[in-house]
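WARN no homologs supplied; continuing
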Amino acid sequence: MNDTSAPPRCFWAGEDELMQAYHDEEWGTPVYDDRELFERLLLEGFQAGLSWRTILHKRENFRRAFDHFDVEKIAAYDEGKIASLLADPGIVRNRLKVRGAVRNAKAFLRLVGAQGAFSDWLWRFVDGTPLLPAAPLTPERVPAQTDIARVLSNALRKAGFTFVGPTICYAFMQSVGMVDDHVVGCFKYRGPLPGS
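OK structure emitted
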């Protein structure tokens, strides 16, 4: 049953209630909390090759399995913990991605140790302000990656992260509000209007 009172949303939110709530309450909203940024970065890595809907529906399982994304705990995971994660049907049981999460936790701690808050380091890539589209943004004009995402990807790789290619980085930037890619017609759209 379609709710005619529902606000118009971006095309990808679809009819799934969890996706709609994520769109309305989280996606594109600036995030400055290091733990939440770490969670989003890891989940974007787990999404590689899958749909965001799949990851979103497993997010609570990921939180349980990965100690609520406590970066210090994840960095200390041993082979026994990795084996238990690979046996957990509630998450994505991909060996490279699970090991990548541990590697990324260690890289995250090194980066924070060298640079200070991850949030401060990250938001410098957009001069501390969410990027809005320069022209009216329609579904077919939403990019899969950008020059800034490529720069961020290279910086993260140099810092020792994995599963941080430019497409993953751009999806992460969209998720945490570094870019605002809500499209024309969505109730959250803030870019220029057609004809303006």
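The chain has nine helices and no strands.
OK
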